[in-house]
Design brief:
The chain is an alpha+beta fold. The chain is built from 10 helices and 4 strands. The protein folds into 3 domains: 103 residues, Arc Repressor Mutant, subunit A (Orthogonal Bundle); 44 residues, Arc Repressor Mutant, subunit A; 54 residues. A hairpin with a 2-residue loop joins strand 2 and strand 3. The longest helix is centred in the first third of the chain and has 24 residues. One of its GO terms (cellular component) is cytoplasm. It comes from Anaerotignum lactatifermentans. Pfam families: RecX_HTH1, RecX_HTH2, RecX_HTH3.
Length: 216
């Protein structure tokens, strides 16, 4: 953003108190939201509506104060549980941090191991299999929905001992309570349930055979 007042200056068009945090001010430059600062920093950097902000001042604010805000936002978001790269980028974008600030924060998170999609995927699959076993397809779709790349999802699933047939057999026992004398409608309902869990037809047939043979 360059204003007409100088090649290296931009125009502060509005300084508006935040509704959620009255101590902060939303700064608009050339008519667009740029960043938020506490009131003391607005005074320190001598920001005034209708006056230019030098490029050097703008860069100092973005590379230091705003970067620290963005980093704190990301670390706080990570404080509850592991997050994917996509989730972290979404959170920082939602908070209206500039793209270059987001990239700088992501570099920090990658460098120090705070963001690792493969580690996230391994942990996610392990927990899913412990609590609610699902087939490989369903697990892959869940990982993709969380922003995990197809390559990483496939790698993690290939490295995981899924035991899909045994897991599906346990679901069959749970849903039928061990009674396999099902009519056609009940069978279709059971098969549909297992398919929604991500089990393929060949896995379902294998699971049924395990149950019928009493091997589960």
């Amino acid at each position: 953003m360059k204003s007409e007042q100088g090649e290296n200056a931009m125009l502060v068009t509005a300084i508006i108190p935040q509704k959620k945090d009255p101590a902060k001010r939303n700064i608009f430059i050339d008519g667009e939201f740029a960043f938020s600062l506490i009131a003391q920093d607005v005074l320190y950097f001598k920001l005034r509506e209708g006056e230019p902000i030098p490029q050097e001042t703008y860069d100092t604010i973005q590379d230091n104060l705003i970067y620290i805000q963005a980093q704190d936002t990301a670390l706080h978001y990570l404080g509850y549980k592991m997050r994917t790269e996509a989730e972290l980028r979404w959170k920082l974008t939602e908070k209206e941090f500039a793209p270059q600030v987001i990239e700088k924060v992501m570099d920090f998170l990658f460098r120090y191991g705070y963001c690792d999609d493969k580690a996230y995927a391994k942990s996610f699959v392990k927990e899913r299999l412990r609590l609610k076993p699902k087939g490989a397809y369903a697990l892959k779709m869940e990982l993709r929905q969380k922003g995990i790349s197809e390559k990483i999802a496939e790698e993690v699933l290939a490295e995981t001992d899924l035991n899909e047939a045994e897991d599906a057999a346990r679901w069959i026992l749970k849903k039928t309570r061990g009674n396999l004398e099902l009519d056609e409608k009940e069978k279709q309902r059971l098969y549909g349930f297992l398919q929604r869990k991500g089990y393929r037809w060949d896995t379902i047939r294998e699971a049924m055979a395990l149950v019928e043979a009493g091997e589960v």
